[in-house]
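Q: Can I see a sequence and its folded structure?
A: Here is a first one.
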Amino acid sequence: MKKINYLRNAIIGFVILITIWQLIIVVGNYEAALFPPPLLVWKGIVSLILDGTLFVHLQVSLLRFITGYLSAVIVAIGLGLILGRIPLLWGVIDPIVQVLRPVSPIAWSPFIVLWFGIGNIPAIVIIFIAAFFPVLLSTVGAVRKVDQTYLKVAQNFEIKRFELLRKIIFPAIFPYIANGLHIAVGTAWIFLVSGEMIGARSGLGYLIVDARNSMRLDLVMAGIVFIGVAGLFLDKAVGVFENWINRVWGRQSA
């Protein structure tokens, strides 16, 4: 029932958005070459699908995203578990993280391109940076909020450290980590597209730049639509993973 309601609301929302889009064009009397109407953009979307261009660029972007995002999540959670358990060490690292965190990954792009060249790696590095800090901070914060009673009981039963992490700490902190995962998905996807506009010759970001250079603003808008839809599906994929983990740990009914 929830899925049906969500789908219904999504359809209504998109209809409203497209209506407002068309009204802006009509009221503002914009030329199609400057502000493509929905019908023209739809034709551009169909053309990109039929000639296979969309799937080529989408596949490249998703591969880069998955590689950078998963690498960042694994490293950030691992470090977060360690730093959260050692307050003295986190006290030293925290100021460094707070200085680096607000810096846009794109600000590092001149160095990234110089160090790694043009291709997949610069985009992956940018995604890694974008996803790393939200997950790290959510993990450290969550570990520090774990009820000390659980830890004392585990200590009394002489539970080993790995079992302590697997059976007590990680299940207790996962809801907080999940928030970081959702934030990291949106942030990393945004900067993936930005990275592909700078240091790549393929992907959805490059598709937009190439269409702009060709003065095909309908394809630019089509690329924007693809990016938004793909970002929505990626966020929902993280939600599905979160629900699965919760069911495994008995926190949510199947």
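Q: Show me another, different protein.
A: A second, unrelated one:
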Amino acid sequence: MTPAPHRSHTDDLLSFIAASPSPYHVVASAAQRLEKAGFRELRGTDDWTGATGGCFVTRAGALIAWYVPEGAPTHTPFRIVGTHTDSPNLRIKPSPDTGTAGWRQIGVEIYGGVPLNTWLDRDLGISGRLALRGPDGTPRNRLVQIDEPLLRVPQLAIHLDRTVNEGVALDRQRHIAPIWALGDPQEGALLRRVAAAAEEDPADVLGWDLMLHDIQPPGYLGVDREFVVSSRLDNQISVHAGVTALVEAATGVEEPRYIPVLAAFDHEEVGSGSETGAQSPLLERVLSRSVSARGGSGEDWSRALSGAFCVSADMAHAVHPNYAERHDPDHRPLPNGGPTVKVNVNQRYATDSTGIAVFTAACERAGAPWQPFVSNNAMPCGTSIGPLTAARLGVTTVDVGVPGLSMHSARELCGADDPAYLAAILGAIMAG
């Protein structure tokens, strides 16, 4: 693989991220690319009988997509890539209008593991979805994305807090209400601004799932532009790579050895415990239904699952040059060294030797490097959707991810070559 394909893939990734400030936008961006590649959306209330080719299902911030080659037996095993669409951020409360001391502010909640200092003094926009009154009384949804510097969480000047560089913790409840105007709080002001951006009547807004995002666009960093810096690299790198790999697998299948699947879940950053999270039966129900819709029996479903393999793709930690002691001394991944295979014997990651063997064989076929990752024994590691998927479906699963710095920050960093490496490896796994 030459540098040119790497940069082309990463350029496309940056466009994907810029268009996807919320999980709902991630799903819309992925669906748009799948439809362009000939996939069709199936709804839960549709008749799926005989559905082959490229199909996908969306539910709020989650997407399940798969490709069934013509003539594939109903017991054909699945090759699943699991990812997540959400990222830690600040989410707007149901009654957001607030303020003090002559400033108009909005109330927000902290979503996921947010390093709050990274959200200070940044120009913030608003994105998410509105739930609107439909013409027949049924609610309809409308995406909204305001890439304007509407809000800011101002940091206290050092003259008023000389201890700011001594690691004093922020008061999580009192000091994160962003400012956005002067004057007393005006009830409904934020709603009117967001509804106007969506070209909707505020009276039709019945609810919302809105969040803040850093409006600084993604880009390259470094003397040779060897790094990518952006919001939401965790985990849009993996979603984008999964979509790319699935489309390529669908166009390059000659013999139907496997059915490639992309599962992009929501709410991973808060435990995956929702109807669209990895703990839900969403993936299981969709795949089971896809088998029965093609005339498969319960035995065919069991056979397809028994031969299945899953790659859980989520960001990983590169060794930090200023805190090298926080990492395992013998496992220190670096950017542009390829994706990591994440191992934890306490099953915070689902990787075992069989999964490593399948993954490394795919790396060889793709001509892509890889790196091992193990957390320092003194530092409890995070987890991912891998263990949840392995436990729910009972399939062999390997946890992998592009190594980066500043994970969960408002602006993360990774190597510019690694996203293309990941997409190539996932493509090799999906194709078998």
